[in-house]
Amino acid sequence: MRIIxxxxxxxxxxxxxxxxxxxxxxxFVFDQSTSDVAGYTSAQIEQDHTTSPDLAGVPIxxxxxxxxxxxxxxxxxxxxxxxxxxxIGELKRTLDARVEPDNPRVRDEAVVLALKYPGExxxxxxxxxxxxxxxxxxxxxGWGYVSDPRGIDDxxxxxxxxRNGERANCVGGGDCDDFAILMSALVESIGGTTRIILARNNxxxxxxxxxxxxxxxxxxxxxxxVEAIIDWLREKLDADKIYTHIDTDTKxxxxxxxxxxxxxxxxxxGGPFYQGDKHIVxxxxxxxxxxxxxxxxxxNKPPKLISLTADKLSPQEAGAAITWTAEARDPEEDQxxxxxxxxxxxxxxWINEDMWTWTAEDYDAGENQIEVRVRDGKHAGAEGFxxxxxxxxxxxxxxxxxxxxxxxxxxxxxxxxxxxxDVTADVDDRIVSEVETWSKTFGGAENDWGMxxxxxxxxxxxxxxxxxxxxxxxxxxxxIKTNDHGNKLWDxTFGGAECDEGDxxxxxxxxxxxxMGNTESFGAGNNDxxxIKTDDHGNKLWDxTFGGADWDWGSxxxxxxxxxxxxxxSTFSFDEAGDRDxxxIKTGDRDxxxIKTDDQGNKLWDxTFGGAGHDEGNxxxxxxxxxxxxMGYTESFGAGSSDxxxIKTDDQGNKLWDxTFGGAYGDDGSxxxxxxxxxxxxxxGTSSFDEAGDGDxxxIKTDAEGNKLWDxTFGGAYGDDGSxxxxxxxxxxxxMGNTESFGAGNNDxxxIKTDDQGNRLWDxTFGGAGHDEGNxxxxxxxxxxxxMGYTESFGAVDSDxxxIKTDAEGNx
Length: 812
What we know:
Layout lengths: L24 E6 L11 H10 L9 E2 L6 E5 L9 E5 H12 L4 H11 L8 H13 L8 E2 L12 H11 L4 E2 L1 H14 L4 E8 L3 E12 L8 H13 L4 E6 L4 E5 L21 E5 L21 E7 L10 E9 L6 E7 L2 E2 L8 E5 L6 E11 L10 E9 L22 E6 L7 E12 L5 E8 L5 E7 L8 E7 L5 E7 L5 E8 L5 E7 L8 E7 L5 E7 L5 E8 L5 E7 L9 E6 L9 E2 L5 E7 L5 E8 L5 E7 L8 E7 L5 E7 L5 E8 L5 E7 L9 E7 L5 E7 L5 E8 L5 E7 L8 E7 L5 E7 L5 E8 L5 E7 L8 E7 L6
């Protein structure tokens, strides 16, 4: 569409809008004089619009209905003169088809631009897209302006604009409606929300520009995040003023993405508005929910130690000088500092040198432990470190220590294990009880993760997760069997050329194993649920995939009393009302969706639960009455942006009742178990009821009808959450969670033991300087606990599966 401008150009630019615009959508400038805008009244926002000299000639935004028409001037040159009418509804539909954020070419372009910055839907990713379109990069020129044919409105498809740009060695070309369409397509393609505004001026012509949704001030959707983003933009772009629209009713904030320069001659997101007699929002894709943007993720990749080596072989005699050399790498080539330790005592301060010479003394006789730690030079904490390596070295002993002679009836301590002992006060200090403890890692040169563990009938353990180090594809589903000491007996990988992973495993009545996983290599769509049955040695007997043309995930599986299987997860392929539905699957034989399978994994029936938002199932268990209890989270129902969602069904998957738990912010549920009294114990995370930080671990106890009896939160100043819960034999509860508030690194495994009322008895953290995460816990036959997760602090390289066995007090 074209509108005559004073210099002869004619533009129509459109913006994608999610939801209808508002007559109270007023221009607003954030500058040095604005602070705490979240506390502004509607009248204050409107007053700033009318009194600001920067907004003179910029009207309030209006939204015409689909039935209205626009009169558009027609240029001369053989194409006629006068005006032509455009129906608003038809115009919206035309532009909606042109934006195509799901086109593979558009999606690829957006993903490459977004991957320059970590996170999802962050403001720095939006700035990256804007800068690329406006200015190009080292290999391509920026946007090239080309007018439409005279008298003809030509709207190019977003992917067509990109193809034209490739041929001309620029990012794209066309007039402003083509620029806005491509801008909207790229932003929408990475999950942002955009709209296009037509700025009409009866005297000078017209213009159009795109906007991106920042969020809602003074609201649980984004809170003070919007003003934090504005402050970040001003500092990042060296801009004194950031131009936005604010809806005076909802406090929704939209950021201007026009290409006009500011007072300093710089074009950037949040630049000045085009003046006009009328600004009109053209609504496209108005069934999509508005998604707030996020602040940039602070990313400083830590260094990693590769090796610690000595220049002499062990053993050596006292007086020998042994030089230790550490090899470390920093992905960002930051300065690295080293610190060496001898037998847990510091041997050096933090130094720049990667070498240390140890002159052994007589008192060093015996086995010694040498450790080196490395940290990024950017770290402020003198005791903080990012990676460590430990080595042993023997100095010839001066005097041998006689071993302890155990009597024949003393129990032997398993090799490579530690033992927590209750010791009597008799003369011989004999062991009267013992619980074995140990820690094992499994992995190779790439990333490997552990998701689920269960003790098996032979007192060993079965583990599932995924591996990038072994198998056929990018990720392979990984099944590992260990003995009771955690030593690997065998392992199996399952998968194809793409990403495949295991999320839940259980030993079955026949001694084999059932695995719930996810596959991109097989099935009907982008990702399908993957059910695999093996014999007692992990050899596959059969497998089944469940899913449609879109993305579908499985999270939890349990064998049921009839020998079949119950599964929960989520589906994009078969949701009835929204973006993602909770998907409950049990073994059965119909084409309806909650899936039930028989003992061979053949589907019997299925059900979906959900509304217009994201809804997901994370844990399922058969209950004593033969029905099922499901734990997940919902964005469709409840009090806040997401709530824990507890659903009870009968034995056919028909919902009997459901309960939501949550507040004004994001809350989610990870695990549920029926308790001895017929009620339920739940764990997850809450941002609504955390007392001090970015989220707390949440423990909830309900009665048999899902009514809350009590709840407890655990956490500190940073993000903490719960991933797995089980009632213990003493009637209390054991919780596996993750903590950023406590422990040694940026995220540690967090084991919490409570009494039957959820009062904490003790807690333990496990981890090092890297990111370590716990996903599963179970009480073991000896009264201790088995934990499954992954570690970036220990093991081989990158991340490894981490299996930890503790005593009854959580010590390992």
